[in-house]
Here is the input.
Amino acid sequence: MILSCRFREALVYACELHANQVRKGSGVPYVAHLLGVASIALEYGAKEDEAIAALLHDAIEDQGGVSTKQEIQRRFGDIVATIVDGCSDTDQTPKPPWRERKQAYINHIPNASASVRLVSAADKLYNARSIVQDYRQVGEAIWERFTGGASGTLWYYRAIVDAFNRVEITPLVEELDRVVSQLEQLVDLEVTMSKTSEKQVKINEKPD
Here is the structure.
């Protein structure tokens, strides 16, 4: 597949929309995430509309809500706008409470189109990989970046994998499952090591 000028136009538009955003904690320009999600989507068979939606998947949620959806629809058509809308957990400002939004998003996955599931899974895979990478660098401090903290974040990623698996087990979902499992194992190992260390300190502090 050869990407047309529509994809290039979407890339420019995404860069304009997210120009002042950076990734939580890392300070990396947000466009890196958008490029990464589009790359993953394309690697797993995305068509051009799906790749464009991958570039714009956070636009409605983070950059203007309904008015941005209408602009995406005007520029790139109904299919792209529908996919982006399906990947958004809210178009409201202020956003509803975190747990409520995430549960609603999980609930909608089984009824979402294959295109929405492809872009959503690409987004979640990029994020899960980033969390694993950053966890190895900063450890438990990473959870300060997330509204749900450690338990909420781990719950969400496992629940979203389960939701995807209930519909269709694809190579993309299988990879997401592997990365989420890797994160869970890293966290479990860290907790185990921390508890062992605490026990050792207590033993060493006992009087002779």
User: Anything to note?
Assistant: DSSP finds ten helices and no strands in the chain. Confidence is low (pLDDT under 50) at residues 196-204. Residues 171-205 form the longest helix (35 residues). The chain has one domain: 5-194.
